[in-house]
Amino acid sequence: MKALLQRVSDASVTVEGMNIGETGPGLLILVCAMRGDEEHHVEQLALKITKLRIFKDEAGKMNRSILDIGGGALVVSQFTLAADTSRGNRPGFSAAAPPDIGEALYLHFAKTLETEGVAVATGQFGADMQVALVNDGPVTIWLET
User: Fold this and answer.
1) Which end of the chain is more exposed for a tag (fewer CB within 10 A), N or C?
2) Is 78 a catalytic residue?
3) Measured distance CA(91)–CA(68) in Å, rounded
4) CB within 8 Å of 113: residues ≥ 6 apart
5) Is residue 107 in some structural domain?
6) Is position 92 within any domain?
7) Which domain, by its residues, includes 76?
């Protein structure tokens, strides 16, 4: 599983003009299930994210986790994280999990974060979404299992 984390002041996702998810201070997490991923990969990634110390403490150092700050997460499925650009100019996405498996793992990822104590909002799997965010820092981190 791949994830791109962006520390945000706020973030929202819109589908067909309707706001379907938002968060205040915390993380925008773009995720992509890859072929071969299983639930334990998803859980491993979610647990890592809850413990990452990427939020500022009183001294201004990145020393606090999303749980420490009581932050939320907006989780958006993004199969384009699987892009293979090694040949030609058009990316290939065959490394992404098939849609039915990808959706199940995406939902399991969001549920795992929620179970760990993170307030979670989600996008809509497979939809054409518009994502807005204010990147705090900016801090952007790439993770994969």
Assistant:
1) C
2) yes
3) 38
4) 29, 46, 49, 50, 73, 75, 120
5) yes
6) no
7) 2-87+97-144
CA dist 35 to 93, 100, 102, Å? Answer: 10, 12, 9
Full pLDDT tens readout for the chain, 145 residues: 999 999 999 999 999 999 999 999 999 999 999 999 999 999 999 999 999 999 999 999 999 999 999 999 999 999 999 999 999 999 999 999 999 999 999 999 999 999 999 999 999 999 999 999 999 999 999 999 9
Tell me, yes or no, if 80 is annotated catalytic.
Answer: yes
Domain count within the chain? 1
- pTM tops 0.90, yes or no: yes
The label of the residue with tokens 């990147």 reads 135
Q: CB count, 10 Å around CB of 117? A: 10
- Gap between the Cα atoms of 7 and 98, Å rounded: 29
Residue 50 is assigned to a structural domain of this protein: yes
Catalytic residue among 6, 78, 112, 122: 78
CATH of the domain at 50: 3.50.80.10
